[in-house]
Fold each of these.
Amino acid sequence: MSLLVTGSIGIDTVKTPYGVSEDCLGGSSVYFSMAASFFAPVRFVGVIGPDCPFDLAEVFAGRDVDLMGLEVREQSKTFRWTGTYSDNMDDRRTDYIELNVLAEAPPDVPEAYRDSKYVFLANTTPGLQMQLLEQVQGPDFVAADTMDCWIKDDLDDLKKLLGKIDCLILNDGEARMLADDYNLIKAAEKILGMGPGVVIIKKGESGSMICRAGGERFILPAYPADEVKDPTGAGDSFAGGFMGYLAETCKTDFASLKTAVAYGTVVASFTISDFSLEGLTSISKGDIDGRLETLREVTSF
Amino acid sequence: MSLLVTGSIGIDTVKTPYGVSEDCLGGSSVYFSMAASFFAPVRFVGVIGPDCPFDLAEVFAGRDVDLMGLEVREQSKTFRWTGTYSDNMDDRRTDYIELNVLAEAPPDVPEAYRDSKYVFLANTTPGLQMQLLEQVQGPDFVAADTMDCWIKDDLDDLKKLLGKIDCLILNDGEARMLADDYNLIKAAEKILGMGPGVVIIKKGESGSMICRAGGERFILPAYPADEVKDPTGAGDSFAGGFMGYLAETCKTDFASLKTAVAYGTVVASFTISDFSLEGLTSISKGDIDGRLETLREVTSF
């Protein structure tokens, strides 16, 4: 089934205890698309400036990622981000950011994409997410990411968005902030009360939890990775594996959502094993399925 | 099979955002025994002073907990602890502590207990844990708890102890400190290299992980508890459920260790649902089995 992603394309410089990766390709829609393309064809919407040194057609060569929605905005510049991860790899600091195209109008969703049935709105202002969503007609399942600054500064828009989507994906700190409850089970229930039928809370190395209205819950640890080189893109890869699996199977019943979360978990484990997209570009679908079986084994009793 | 526990008996005053419980019964061996007694008969070893206001025979009435190893030391006083939990229930502060009997010689293990096959050495100095263990002849499976201060100040003794036990149970911060590695998978492997065949790392609301020499791993989320009133005793209840199940089944193969960790997880979820021992004394084995099935359901895909 058709899967649309809208999000950022970035030039990242990342410092971790394992090294530095300078001016490498990043951005939410890039990680998402690379992850989702193992499962389903992806329709990619995003903007770069003419300064972007990466040829995305080459980056995605051999993968089913449609770049018709990629806009090169002549008078603008590509989003840039520089960040440093602490020794524990959990905390990261933004050293430098240039929003550039991200501070401007969102891209148009191409006419040919407007019938997309599965939609992922990567993290940006809730107002922009809404504008992008309004360009899609009758989607079956819409998921969105958000972050602390929109919860703090854009809560009204975010609440409007929550009434329009099927699934919110956010991390534990953001869930606590949005629900104003430290207990994650209660926080998830409160967020379900704000509109989406499904909430996924990501807890980094402690895994993730999915709650659906009506009391269904699924809790999954992270894949037991003994090698973490660069956590950048983990969340978007998780979302990519999750949405990719749903779009592939055309199902959103709870059993499918559970398997989708497991695929997201596994795909993210490859992302963090190396810098930039290296961990994702060097693997096959068979590697992903192998880790899925390992994850099933180490979590069942 | 016979299950021996050595540990503390305390008079606790606990403050949490849900209330204050003053001068209530606590202590590692008390929580452990209450939890383990749902599964197997428990042999209890510990010391109190004549000031102890609790009649342990009454506390454990109707449960298979043998108190022959309970010593009332006439010239001494019972251990006292006062602590406050922060709003998030994860962090706690010790406001006041009186070691009293815990700073003295350990109790004798009664002659009739020395053939115990399953042994749990609750947290105390590694030197004392060793002295207690030396009084047991040919146990099948010995588990011990430890904490940050012994890792910092008593590392030589702790390393000697690690060569004598089958299983170390500790929390994530302690594991990172002992192994000098932030990654918990690597930390577990390093601790296995110090002697015990099994390491269990507890991660609070993020669950626990068990690793066995040879690469076997099991990772389990915490039970999804929406009501946490008092986390005191969670770790000892976890150990009680874990060791109780092993002693009940007389098995320590990896499948049994996994189920034992799941039982420990579930029993701890009852402990934290109320103050002191209330959460454990108000339930039946059927309630425990019910939550075990729920835990299986919410973690399988």
Amino acid sequence: MRRACITGGAGFIGSNLADRLLADGSEVVVVDDFRTGRRAFLGDAAEHPHFRLVEGDVLSPGILEDAFAGCDWVFHLQANADVRHGLERPRLDLEQNTIATSKVLEAMRQTGVSNIVFSSTGSVYGEPELFPTPEDAPFPLQTSLYGASKLAGEGLIAAYATGFAITGVICRFVSILGERYTHGHVIDFYRSLKDDPREITVLGDGKQEKSYLYVQDCIEAILTAVARHEGQGGAHVYNLGTDETVIVDESLALITGRLGCTPAVRHTGGVRGWTGDSPLIRLDTSKIRSLGWAPKLTIGLAIEKTVDWLEANEHVWRPQVQP
Amino acid sequence: MRRACITGGAGFIGSNLADRLLADGSEVVVVDDFRTGRRAFLGDAAEHPHFRLVEGDVLSPGILEDAFAGCDWVFHLQANADVRHGLERPRLDLEQNTIATSKVLEAMRQTGVSNIVFSSTGSVYGEPELFPTPEDAPFPLQTSLYGASKLAGEGLIAAYATGFAITGVICRFVSILGERYTHGHVIDFYRSLKDDPREITVLGDGKQEKSYLYVQDCIEAILTAVARHEGQGGAHVYNLGTDETVIVDESLALITGRLGCTPAVRHTGGVRGWTGDSPLIRLDTSKIRSLGWAPKLTIGLAIEKTVDWLEANEHVWRPQVQP
């Protein structure tokens, strides 16, 4: 890859990807408005001569056209990644995920970029009947606005692949963990334990079965699919995850074990942590494995690595006091 | 049903549905901006004391809230229904189908309407591998912006059904024919033959296999699903079509037979009529049939009925000369 643009490139996965692509010898353009992305995550990349930052909202006119010029790949990672609170602001998922993806595709047409990676989600399977869930599972019903907005993005990319001869690599992620992780179960538990290590509340019955993937394994999987499909045309869907799952109570135990605390655990009850929560996520990853990829870290190790990183980076999880 | 709002209620299916619901004793509110809907189609309904017209674009602020007040059902039929030309104006499907559906759902929340019928399409199956294609076919890839935009609408409705306890009836239509038909293969052929009955051009190889359903059969199927699911919660997906198919050359022969002309037929070639065209549409309709519904008209009779109606309604297909 000669030059890549990463939307949301100051975020968790995006900034790790930027570092990786720069190390691999590519030029990298990051688009980010720093609403959830963090300048500190681009600390290393910003020093690199092959790095360029385009600061702004992907929905602002001209931003993407500026950023995409001369790129051969777009990694469209910018998103509203807040699954749980979708119902409070339904417009957010539509704008930040669906409409933004349409803008990205139009800007690709304008600038002649013909390869895109899209960060989709295992949430598009809703509550599947088939486990582990393969990419061609029975046509699912959506259960969250987040999943629906990502499904809409997938549909746009596949239609553009048919209509405008672009190549789309659609990655359906499980939850990603690792360095620069800022959002999700693990940080919620971590914050709560830092605030009060004696007790913690778990949404649902704690038996929800989740899957996680370490961020460097995620990036390796993305680049494996990229190498396989570059310039090939069509839309190519991959589940990205481990073959393991972990129940919520177990992941909490891994965190408390690492922190050396033994809180009293209160469950709010019910098989779902919130409306639209999937009680069971277990993706069939044989398709990406068939390309030669395999994860290096277990879920347990990924959780421990994440906790260790949070311990060393208090600025990420400690609310800032406004001066 | 006490009071129903029909978006796109001056269109082909919408105006037929309005007449039917009024005849069944319901109050009917039609929302239409007459961009493609026609005032003439509301001729009968407009005289009815239980009819109200709200003229305007569904995307305009306040229009839907006005129209939905006091309704128990919304039939969201307004759409950009132009499958073939989606690639020329990619923004149109996004705005008219996806974003408009989001507006409809938000307006339902604002006004407390909790039941919706959505006019989706067999195009969401892209180019399926399974025929006849059931509602839970393998998770498809989108091949048209139209299909993608309708899939996005389906996803929103299902997510709202989970999150906000609405009931969604999602109908995946084949092409609909009958009185007030204004758009699609049959009228394209009809217009061309009226212009020059000696020759006609068919997009593709003419062997594309399509499915059609008569508009009154379509409405009966919708109302069958409505009666089954009202107030039940959840999203319920139904294929609506006949179990027949007809190849494009055969449908042309039915039209020329009805018109008594014998044109030379030129094929542009290729298995698809245009980029994103589905060479084969055959839906499994056993789910809607299991509710007791069956179509009354064959595809052949539906095509003949449509041609007869076009013959009697020149104003629909003859371009108007501007004064």
